[in-house]
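Consider the following input, taken from an annotated entry for 3'(2'),5'-bisphosphate nucleotidase CysQ (Thiomicrorhabdus marina).
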Amino acid sequence: MEQIDQQQLQQWLPQVCKIALQAGRCISRMYRENQANEFIDVDKKKDGTPVTEADRYADGLIFTALQSMTPDIPLVTEESVAKFSFDERQHWSTYWLVDPLDGTKEFIEGTGEFSVNIALIHHHKPVLGVVFGPEVNHLYYAIQGNTSYKVDVGVQSNDVDTLDIKALLQQARAIRTANLAQEEITKVAVSRRHGGRTQYFMSELGAHETVKMGSALKSCLVAEGAAHVYPRFGPTSLWDTAASQIIVEMAGGAVLNAAGHPLEYVQTPTLLNPFFLVVCQTDYSWPPIPEVM
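Applying the prediction step yields:
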């Protein structure tokens, strides 16, 4: 697919939001059932990361829905990527990039800070992104060349099949990143399992406070001005960042590698990201990013 215009993105966006809501509500039901039973069946993937029935179910739901909506656009999803060899993937100029349950550890540990991430990649850049946190009830979305939005999703979305998605999106408010120059304390979005590199980065910032959150919702905190920076100096995959990156960028921020360039979504055998910073502004003197994984 050579070009995707604004009209096409606008047409797809409500449908993608609805797909994210459908997957998120299914995950929430499974999450609450598991919490009530005090038992979660967890398997380990080849890379040692955990995977649950909720990951697989949401992956299948999103995969089927996106294929039905755009049969000519291929998909890379976390749980189905093994279906497609790198030799096939490397020729895709446009594809959906999906993390059906970002924050599986948050799902297992019962924090509720997980999300559904759906992005459309075109020529190595995200051009549409939707992030839904079903337990925090926040839906974030953006398309290239437009503004980023947040919807506080209430109980009206529980029956997603009958939901008037366009009416819901009309309730959205535009979001913008904060201006750090106007504030005395840097707010740093971190997970509950950040390591020594992140601690050192924060010490270089001077006066700061942490805002703890899981999954891509950390990046969304930067996009809406609730945090100034999210440093990530541990392994992540392309599907972890793509949807939130376009939301951050259209809100005025950036997702930068050690060279100060925006992350790009080039197909590789591993689909791994470098270390990165999610920042509220690029004209601020941020401490350097460690260059070695």
